[in-house]
């Protein structure tokens, strides 16, 4: 083996150690949940090597010590729990317990609605946030709303919050990028739209952009035809009572979701 080959093998080995360390760090933060598959081993005690799943109750059954509550624990906490019972029972004097997470099933978050890859995704670390799960699902599609709905259970009570995603990354970042928990559901609804018709180049439905004005909506529709006039524009808007009102807007007025903008023909 020449010098270059030895150098390449050394680099690959170092990279492998780095990746393994990163994976171990991620697992150290993860909290075990129902359905997770784990492999438990004790140094110099091969007969205590067991592959098992965490039950719905969070309990596993382990040789010599019986039932152990591991659900909700991090992996280092679970290792200490088993080691303590082995030592207290007099089975192993100085147990060195290692737990390997084989398959994640317990702590999963459902990402639904208008995202690139809807589905259920595992929480890989204990500090996984809303933005992390949206990124895992590929983010919202162009027709998806900027506001997402996060629902789940917190402290035994139903939890629901609407979160403005672009605001998470604005100049004044807020604290809305919350931690997610197992069983949470993230839902991305369809973005609000307005409708424009009449004497415009491209009539149809369009997304309501943030702080969009009537003039910007008119531009979105391709502008006026040769027969159109801004003076005769009307907005048909449904109020809280369900009734539709006809409004003569200013060009600087803001467009609302489900507004119907009509551009009439000029009389002159």
Automatic annotation (TrEMBL):
One of its GO terms (cellular component) is cell outer membrane. Keywords: Cell outer membrane, Ion transport, Lipoprotein, Membrane, Palmitate, Polysaccharide transport, Porin, Signal, Sugar transport, Transmembrane, Transmembrane beta strand, Transport. It is a multi-pass membrane protein. One of its GO terms (biological process) is monoatomic ion transport. InterPro entries: Poly_export, Poly_export_N, Polysacc_export_EpsE, SLBB_dom, Soluble_ligand-bd. It comes from the Bacteria. One of its GO terms (molecular function) is porin activity. Residues 193-246 form the Soluble ligand binding domain. Pfam families: Poly_export, SLBB, SLBB_2. The keyword Membrane applies. It is found in: Cell outer membrane. Residues 108-188 form the SLBB domain. Residues 26-99 form the Polysaccharide export protein N-terminal domain. The keyword Lipoprotein applies. Belongs to the BexD/CtrA/VexA family. This is Polysaccharide export protein Wza. It comes from Candidatus Accumulibacter adjunctus.
